[in-house]
Amino acid sequence: MSATTPLRIVAVSAGLSRPSSTRLLADRLAAAARERLAAEQDRNVEVRVVELRDLAVDIANHLVSGFPPAALREAVDAVTEADGLIAVTPVFTASYSGLFKSFFDLIDNTALTGKPVLIAATGGTARHSLVLEHALRPLFAYLRAVTVPTSVYAASEDWGSTGDAHTDGLPSRIRRAGGELASAVLGRTGSGGTGHGEEGGALVPFEQQLAELRVN
Question: Pick from 208, 211, 169: which is nearest to 188 by CA?
Fold first, then answer.
């Protein structure tokens, strides 16, 4: 890849309403990743948000016909060609939304191999936060992507919260996750290239995760 080629971050938002907390979280995560990328290298950073709400009919038609309309095909291409991916879904019935799953069902199961992915979700209560580990992380493991260590769940009460002595607030988690995605895109370890996350625990080098994917 040319040194002048922009780095491409694509965020997929499965929010259904407008305005949408899912879209808001996708925007903030993308901004955090872009800020870190811009600070640590000289290439331009392009960010695109794919709103699945706008593609819902196209997704349904493709599932039954096997022929993607142009807008859907272009969105899939943007996701598979991105340098880093952010995937955000609302929680429905203790899992990702059907629209979110239907979109990723259309992506070839090798198209995301080795791609850095930041997973996130929104919901009305913190009780659904484990959806990130029980549903989203296994989905992207199947697609052979490399998910960054920090995932972000935003319950209704998290918006505007600064956290407490035991829990980071949402802005802090967004910054950490965005930094980890930026580091993975740049092929380094840890948050900010130090080899360690903000909590001081060692992270698995991105190159090692990619090598393990190729072996398996």
Answer: 208
The whole-model pTM stands at 0.83
Q: Where are the beta strands (DSSP E) in the chain?
A: 7-13, 45-51, 84-92, 95-96, 116-123, 146-147, 152-155
Q: Is 118 helix (H, G, I), strand (E, B) or coil?
A: strand
3-state secondary structure of 125: coil
- 10 Å CB burial of residue 161 (0-12, 13-18, 19+) is middle
Helix (H, G, I), strand (E, B) or coil at 46: strand
CB 3 within 8 A of CB 43: yes
What six digits make up the tokens of 66? 């096997």
Question: In whole angstroms, how large is the CA radius of gyration of the chain?
Answer: 17
Q: Express each pLDDT in 101-155 by its tens digit.
A: 999 999 999 999 999 999 999 998 888 899 999 999 999 999 999 999 999 999 9
Q: Can you tell me the distance from the alpha carbon of 32 to that of 174, in angstroms, rounded to the nearest whole number?
A: 7
* pLDDT value for 34: 97
Quick one: tokens of 119?
């997973």
Q: Which residue, among 126, 117, 95, 120, has the nearest Cα to 173 in the 3D structure? A: 120
**Rounded Cα gap, residues 134 and 156, in angstroms:** 20
